[in-house]
């Protein structure tokens, strides 16, 4: 199991969500509002604030779905401009379902 964590432009969220929901067996996701900056920084003359609004997607998926989810996000979130975002794949060693108490090393 892996976590796919993506930082995307807020205006792309609905398009990304619709594309991900078309993937058979898509496990769902969490969305978090966040701010940040990367190599390309904006400079505001007044009230300097380098942080830009982003949406963070957190998806825990079985290994067999990771590549299709990753590629779907990369394709759908891309506008071709700086600041489109980043996608990471992170190893998730173990998880648990609170409602059932189920604990598994490959919990989907």
TrEMBL record:
SUPFAM superfamilies this protein is in? GlnB-like
Q: Which PROSITE patterns match?
A: PII_GLNB_DOM
The domain of life is: Bacteria
Species of origin reads Methylomonas rosea
Name recorded for this polypeptide? P-II family nitrogen regulator
| SMART domains referenced in this protein's UniProt entry, alphabetically | P-II (SM00938)
């Amino acid at each position: 199991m892996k976590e796919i964590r993506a930082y995307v432009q807020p205006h792309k969220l609905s398009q990304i969500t619709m594309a991900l929901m078309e993937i058979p067996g898509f496990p769902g996701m969490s969305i978090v509002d966040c701010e940040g900056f990367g190599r390309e920084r904006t400079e505001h003359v007044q009230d300097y604030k380098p942080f830009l609004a982003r949406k963070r997607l957190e998806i825990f998926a079985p290994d067999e779905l990771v590549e299709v989810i990753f590629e779907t996000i990369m394709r759908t979130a891309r506008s071709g401009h700086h600041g489109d975002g980043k996608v990471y794949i992170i190893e998730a060693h173990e998880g648990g379902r609170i409602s059932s108490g189920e604990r598994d090393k490959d919990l989907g």
